[in-house]
Request: fold
Amino acid sequence: MEIDKGRIMTYEHHGQKVYVREDLKGTHWDSCLCAICEDLNLGSDNKCPIADAIYKNCVEFGVVTPIYECPAFKLMKGLEDKFEVADSE
Reply:
């Protein structure tokens, strides 16, 4: 595995000092399925239980976890023209 060279920085996230590659800071929503999932529903009683559990884990341990694979993913309404969801057989 080849690792890019870069700068590691620190900042406070969820009340904890964390380390992050400077070039990746703040980019997790760019690739996370949750950002385009119909069922995310942040702040709602009807929020996704998978995303909620992962978020609680992130807060507890001070990590960021972009989701690339999810069994419950549903493309957010209105994004059908931007993404193609291809089911494999």
